[in-house]
Design brief:
By secondary structure, the chain is α+β, with helices and mostly antiparallel strands. The chain is built from ten helices and seven strands. The strands form two sheets. A four-stranded antiparallel β-sheet has the order 1-2-3-4. Strands 5-6-7 form a three-stranded antiparallel β-sheet. Helix 3 packs across helix 9.
Amino acid sequence: MKSQKILNLKKNLLFILLFFLLCIKLNLIQGDNMKTLPDWVLKYKKKGVYVKKTKTGYALYRGHSERVPGKSYPVFKCDEYLGIVTQKDGLINSKPPVKPGIKVYRYGFFRLAEVLCSVLRKSPKMRGMNTDVLFVKAVLSYEGVESQISYEGSWLSIMFPSLNLDKSLTEKEECFLPILKRQVKSKIEDSLGTERKEFIALASNLYAVHVNGSWHLSEISKRLDDLAAQKSISFEIGGRYNGI
């Protein structure tokens, strides 16, 4: 047992030594030369960040080492290229290429309906009706785009996925839908008051964009930001649904 521990310790020490030598070879750690790095570079040299001299400045990387099957030495893995540092401009952040698969959804008006009308979902649920379909149809109706295609291009399809709006409603749902539409219209217009047309128009120009694996909002105008603050409405993506 003791000999096995000593053997494991030797392996770990060897791994550390090989990694250090590898980094020197890659010019990611400059040994004593690190002491000669200018201050405008050193301030970016943090734990887990590696520096490499280039023709135009110093490139910064975030990375780690790992053991790879078949290799007797650790391999440096670059997790992220952070950018390049120059004395004149400081850190110039990298600009990763935009990967295929960009998705864009209408978001702003949905968010208004979510905040202002979520309570209206209680009634059809208590009556045993398909609450999600009815609510989505009512919101899209107020937008003037009540269709399956419009649903798929709205954030409604993210919050209430896999709905088929072309599927026939039950007789009870058919009778209740006009009532819910009137309730949604009344709730939105009463809540937003005299500035509702401007509020809705600005919100309708707000989109959610999925790019490079994460969600982003299109730019929120100063006026929309001010109106939203007055009504305590947040357009932040990922906010918890306030309904039932």
